[in-house]
Amino acid sequence: MRPLPIPPLKTVPARYNSFLQAEDETGAELALEVLLQDQIDPEVRRFFRAKLRVSLVSTDDTSVNQDALDLISEVKTLMIPRLRALRDAELETSIENLQAYVKTVSGNVFNRYLRRKYPLRGSLKNQLRYLLTHHDDFALWKSETDLWACGRAPWRSLAIEPRMVRVSDDVNELVAGSMKKKVGAGKGGLMVLVAAVFDHFQRPILFEDLVTVTCELKGIKEPAELNGLWNGDETAGGYADPESELEQKELVKCLWQALERLPTRHRAALLLNLKGENRDNLLALLPLLQVASVRQIAASLGFEAEKFARVWNELPWDDLRIAGHLGLTRQQVINLRQSARTRLKRLLG
Question: What's the pTM value of the predicted model, to 2 decimals?
Fold first, then answer.
């Protein structure tokens, strides 16, 4: 089905100002409806049509097209209360560039969609980003072409040549096959896999290509329709939305402050077992969001810094391991964790 053309959003939309300057609520709601129809909806549709390569025609019953239509509604649903709050002067900040703001909200919704639909790749991507930014031998940087590149730390000065923009499928298969023979799929830890990939290419590669190759190495299979969605033209973590990042950081900071008010054994029972759906070490979010360093986490859990650094990559621990560390039984650890969660609920109110 051939997509219908969508006109570009004006840099300074007059309808946005009309909404903000409306004299009464009735006029404001009418102006908001026009703003959504004429300015915001076309921009959101352009974004998702390009990202998901869909028609956006309501009679197109393909699952991806229907997903895209739902995502467009989600973006507008998120924007309406924000726009109303701006008009009512409830927010101190303002939208200086409506087009950029629409793209940012659309990007955030799109990234959440990808994480829900393709959780294994999203989880691995987070692990790789953390490794590249916290290991002295590796690096993650923005290239001159505004793409995220990665490699050995000394390679930062090397340019990303046009021929290196994409790792072809046949090279992916070659790397996956040779690396599996060398280190074994999923064996030796993520650091060994990443080092092997860099040793093979001997040059910087795109961050998204590293994710793709590492998925192959670890045997992570996602649906075929994933190809092309992770196209590397955003930031390493998706679209940069300072407001969303700040909200996430503040939420995690509040949680960490509440955790520090728990007894040490309760904290240990809860945090040493803290894991995501794919057994990810969720403690890694704390240093990633600059809420607490690994050293601070170690002190909070009663570890010496050097010893905790050695066990960091082993986390999350199972209950038996935690029990051995605390000198308790497995059931006591489970009881402590349940108690910790109950206390946290009261503290967070």
Answer: 0.47
The model's pLDDT over 207-225, given as tens digits with 9 standing for 90+, comes to 888 888 888 777 776 554 4
- 230-236 average pLDDT score: 40
Of 166, 134, 181, nearest to 153 by C-alpha is 134
What percent of the chain shows pLDDT beyond 70? 70
